[in-house]
Amino acid sequence: MRDYDVFTVESKADVLEKSREYWNPGKTGFWVDTGVDLVIDRREGYYIWDMSGARLIDVHLNGGTFNLGHRNAELVEAMKFFASRMKIVVEPTGCLGAAAVLANRLDVRGKRVGIVLSGGNVDLARFASLVSATSPGSS
């Protein structure tokens, strides 16, 4: 069992099962079927470690946007939150953790949670168009 403080998993197979159920069944199935069942356990500098213990060089940088897209509604809402409430510019992948918490994707009640934000990799015109767009379901 691995305890990551915010969530706990039994095994790499458990993570892959949850990935199929909650994230992206097609993409998860494709990678598992092709023998690339990578589940990142931790990062340090330019290295990542798979849950199996293999140390690899991280060459995928910016994976959040690749997997979620540049207009993911939860990321855009997080960007709007930081722009309007805190007056800071946060890029889409720079607010992944915050978006997960704000959208109630992670239950963090009663836990100490640190979230790192970044904002240097966003075109300001694109940022303005995203945060000024009307949210789905809003008037």
Quick summary:
Helix content is 40%, strand content 12%. With 139 residues, the chain is of the alpha+beta class.
How would you portray this structure in words?
- This protein is of the alpha+beta class and 139 residues long.
- The protein has six helices and five strands.
- It has helices spanning 12-23, 25-33, 63-68, 73-85, 96-102, 124-132, and strands spanning 2-3, 8-9, 40-44, 47-50, 55-57.
- Strand 3 (40-44) and strand 4 form a beta hairpin.
- Helix 1 (12-23) packs antiparallel against helix 2 (25-33) and helix 4 (73-85) crosses helix 6.
- The mean pLDDT is 79.
- Give a count of the beta strands, DSSP E runs of length 2 or more: 5
Approximate strand percentage: 5-15%
Cα-based radius of gyration, to the nearest Å? 17 Å
Order of helix and strand elements from N to C terminus = EEHHEEEHHHH
In terms of topology, how is this protein built?
Blueprint: E1 2-3, E2 8-9, H1 12-23, H2 25-33, E3 40-44, E4 47-50, E5 55-57, H3 63-68, H4 73-85, H5 96-102, H6 124-132
Antiparallel strand pairs: 1-2, 3-4, 4-5
Helix pairs in contact: 1-2, 4-5, 4-6
Could you list some keywords that capture this structure?
6 helices; two-stranded antiparallel ribbon; 2 domains; globular; about 140 residues; alpha+beta
